[in-house]
Amino acid sequence: MDKPRALRKRTFAGLAQFLVALSAMLFLSAWSLRFWEGWVFWFEFSVLVTLITTYFLHKDPALIERRLKAGPLAEKQKRQKVIQWFANFFFVALIILPGIDHHLHWSQLSVPLITLGDILVAIGLAVIFFVFRENSYTSGVIEVGKGQMVISTGPYRLVRHPMYAGAIVLILGIPLALGSSWGLLLCLPMVAVIVWRLLDEEKYLSTNLAGYRDYCTITRYRLVPGIY
Question: What is the pLDDT of residues 83-97, one digit of tens each?
Fold first, then answer.
């Protein structure tokens, strides 16, 4: 099997497994298939992630190869392994709690708020797409690739960590899209884990990526222009 074909097979197999696991978390926690907010979110997320994946398999397979290395076991540094375990735990909780909320009828969000959540999910994924397009070295783990240079164009002109900014928008959108006000409580620890990760990442890049310290003096904000 040729390398591009093998990469496509690995990528779509992993994506299919993730989407099946996502649906299981949504509907088992809700203990019902009559969870229309879950179906809308799952369909939207599945379509957008599949489109993004397909685009980069065609345009930048090296990026996909880097992104396949992800999770606590793939990280090289002990601190990042710990951070990734926390990130995985809170992400799973972010999906499961709204399902439990739906089953027990804790929240009664209006359709406009649920729609806002779906819009935030789409915006978050769109930001991540543009980050990937701008920076081919966006790996799933903290590392510096061979020949990697500092990227200061596109979204990197605004903030130093635009992918994490997009991820936060996505995270804020998920509980709203799933109709759960209680799920919003999990956004705070999830954002805290992201900030923890990026601060540790900056220490690593300042030491291992030439020009990163200078970039930090030019692009002052990490996540939100004018705020942080």
Answer: 999 999 999 999 999
CA angle 213–216–218, rounded 5-degree value: 115
Sign, CA torsion 28/70/82/220:
negative
R_g of the chain, CA atoms, integer Å: 18
| In the chain, where the domains are located | 3-218
Prediction pTM value: 0.94
Alpha-carbon distance of 3 to 218, in angstroms, equals: 40
What is the distance between the alpha carbons of residues 186 and 172, in angstroms, rounded to a whole number? 9
| Model confidence at 204: pLDDT above 70 | yes
Structure tokens at 109: 């969000």
CATH of the domain spanning 3-218 = 1.20.120.1630
pLDDT at 1: 57
